[in-house]
Amino acid sequence: MVERPDPKPQCLPVPAALDLTAAAAVPETFFTVWSNVFDRGALRAGETALFHGGTSGIGTTAIQLAASRGATVVATAGSDEKCAACRALGAALAINYRTTDFAEAALAFTGRRGVDLVLDFMGGSYVSRNLSILATDGRLVQIGLQDGDPVAAVDLRRVLGRRLTITGSLLRPRSVAEKGQIAAALRREVWPLLESGQVKPLIGATFPLADAGAAHRLMESSTHIGKIVLIP
Question: What confidence tens digit (pLDDT) does each residue in 88-107 have?
Fold first, then answer.
């Protein structure tokens, strides 16, 4: 019998300002955003970050945390309504990618300098455009491949010339010890923001567990804003 590691290091208390439903929307998104935007991506106050999927669970979390820590946020979303939601969460610029070239809009917003960090879950055809908008010493952080093709062409001249970093990670395969380190950082850096109400998980809809199929259909429709939570 394989002995499993004690999971306690990756556990956190429910923040004082949240009920259990809101708390259920915290772990995956906040662990992912902290690990990739602030740990691997090293986003700092005064820098500019672009987050794709600004009204997803990851996007709504990233916008709030980055803005609260002094970064300027650019977000992409698929409708004018979703763009308005991104701005309400703290994005300085929200780009409707269905009607506007996000790369050109981001470059115009930064005076052609580019952004310091891009957080992307698309991959594929997005990679070259993401690299084109990175400023010198910029970082592309890849956390998904929703565009479908895991292989992307990269112009290494741009990487060399601007000293760019391409990185990425998956949360699920990490060890309990690694997840425990992320949890400790969240407890120290983010829990005070949650407990003060400065940052909060955005819940777009809740469903009884018996209606999980309806929840999946809503998610597939891509019309929701924020997290979808199942209530047991």
Answer: 999 999 999 999 999 999 99
